[in-house]
């Protein structure tokens, strides 16, 4: 298929090419997406649920328009999949695999929109499919999975609307953005970045386009339930964000690390592809009409560094950058020693698949995971939850009056594990003051013992609970966050739960 060049520096709005992307250009990305989705589904039952997945399942059982740390979309998906196949990791993770498959297809389509042919589409799809951030988010159900899909879809719709002059596509972009805002607020940053990019680099006629603003209105209307809930609850999302900026999350990084970390999100082997895409968006005259997309990345990189955002917050633009870079790589392949260059590219994609697959997918035996966890701590968060529940059940069994025990945990992962595995062990529901769990009820008054999981002795434990003794420590078998966590028995809270509860609530 001949390449379809994008708008040149002198292209006006009325002369933008309006040819449709040929149907024949779709199969390369679609085949890559099908292979990736099949692999993700085949591996989805290995290890166990991530702590966030345990939380989302419980949030789905306590549906609300919003939660302190997220919107309703991911808990709603978790509830639907749990309803179809209760307790099945394969079912729970199927939407994530499908979402990342869709991202791969969109990356290929973006390559076509930005001047590439079938080979450029294949390169974009292959680089996206082997990127560690896409492999990892496709393996576990999470808000990030759908966030990446929303960012990729909105950027594709923006490019498509601009190239074809189909202004009604801005309404579709607004619809997608609004749905994404019901998942988490990050798409609002994408919208702000796109606006800033247009102001900086144009095309400024978009600022006068009524369809663009109508799409923005659709997004805001869809976002209203989240905004109303947050306002009614004192904007807890701001406290969550402050905790993340202060390092209160397992995936938080120092602010200076945000840019270097970008090279690891796809993988260092293929980082030159997305970097070439950024350079091309910012400087190639052929893509003058799309230069605002490169500036969107620059603006958001500065903003997230200034506010202490996580490095993966920029990952939603990676499919776009890989697509733009794939066109440059495609043209590079035909220069000089073409055969050697093609072999080098194939080797780089294969190496990326191997390295990123080992980091982001459950390929190794559990007892060999420690080196992987050092590179990707999230892998460790999928191991050891049944052991935690078994340990708490063992403590309960050894306590006098254990059948009347109350369970209280420091974080939502511990509470989610007890709520998932505890019923089969005869354990009661768990309580926690962490994020959304604090809204789902406080412990009842009880004459039985209080079992507390995860608190250090100095601090909240001694301040809030009396007569505490370590009864066991969690042994997950690997060096993850829960390994060695103490399990305490206490005689009870020092104050009535209703008075204590506001001080036990924490965000992060």
Characteristics of this structure?
mainly alpha; 5-stranded mixed beta sheet; 6% strand; disordered N terminus
In summary, what is this structure?
The protein is mostly helical and 508 residues long. The protein has helices at 27-43, 51-61, 73-84, 89-113, 118-129, 132-139, 143-164, 169-181, 186-201, 210-232, 236-245, 258-266, 271-283, 291-307, 318-333, 338-360, 370-375, 377-380, 385-398, 412-421, 457-464, 497-504, and strands at 66-67, 70-71, 406-409, 430-432, 450-453, 465-466, 469-473, 486-490, 492-493. The chain folds into 2 domains: 24-360, no CATH class; 385-504, no CATH class.
Please report the total strand number as a whole number.
9
Strand content: 5-15%
How large is the count of helical segments? Answer: 22
Mean pLDDT: 90
Query: What share of residues is helical?
Result: 55-70%
The biggest sheet amounts to: 5 strands, mixed
Show unreliable segments: 1-26
Descriptive account of the structure:
The chain is mainly alpha-helical and 508 residues long. It has two domains: 24-360, no CATH class; 385-504, no CATH class. It has helices at 27-43, 51-61, 73-84, 89-113, 118-129, 132-139, 143-164, 169-181, 186-201, 210-232, 236-245, 258-266, 271-283, 291-307, 318-333, 338-360, 370-375, 377-380, 385-398, 412-421, 457-464, 497-504; strands at residues 66-67, 70-71, 406-409, 430-432, 450-453, 465-466, 469-473, 486-490, 492-493. The strands form three sheets. It has a five-stranded mixed beta sheet with strand order 4-3-5-8-7, covered by helices on one side. Strands 1-2 form a two-stranded antiparallel sheet. The protein has a two-stranded antiparallel sheet with strand order 6-9. The longest helix has 25 residues, at 89-113. The relative contact order is 0.12. Mean pLDDT is 90; it is low at 1-26.
